[in-house]
Amino acid sequence: MDKVSYALGLGLSQQLIQMGIQELNIDDFAQAIKDVVNGAERKIPQREAQQIVQEYFQKQEAKINAQRAEQGKMFKEAGEKYLADNARKDGVVTLPSGLQYQVLKEGNGRKPTAKDTVMCHYEGFLIDGTVFDSSIQRGEPATFPLQQVIAGWTEGLQLMQEGAKYRFFIPYRLAYGENGAGASIPPFSALVFDVELIQVV
Questions:
Q1: Cα Rg for the chain, rounded, in angstroms?
Q2: Could you report the per-residue pLDDT of 89-112, keeping only the tens digit for each?
Q3: Residues involved in catalysis
Q4: How is residue 89 annotated by DSSP?
């Protein structure tokens, strides 16, 4: 049973870490387990224990939300400065929506509408140059309806003809907004995409 006990401890510990609990008094934690398993008198009544845990998680959530808000403010300001500086560069066009683009190569094929499906090769970057997504690295172009992508893509791809390659500079509100996307795209992130329009499907 020694290995089973240890394995259960590992599982519980990993769950606690996933829940964001990293500061524990291990002795008190172990004592609580002993008291429950042995049927001993508990030092804190069940109802009070539930309230303590609930209040702890409420404080943790408030702390995380405050950190996210501060981080979001930082990314928002950095993105706005980046786009303002970028707008002054040669060859960069800024549209009324705030979307910016630069022609890397013109095409001579069909132009998609918002209702079309397109096949593209692309790479997506944060403004610090970090690549967060790349069909090129995967070695396979992506195909998708233009109505099911971020607004910056829907607007930008309609400027292109098949065979063209553009670089798009997308404000957060035309990208993944205030929430970001997963672990790779923070809240309020301006994004850069190099997009080659291979075909209007």
A1: 25
A2: 999 999 999 999 999 999 999 999
A3: 122, 132-133, 150, 176, 193
A4: S
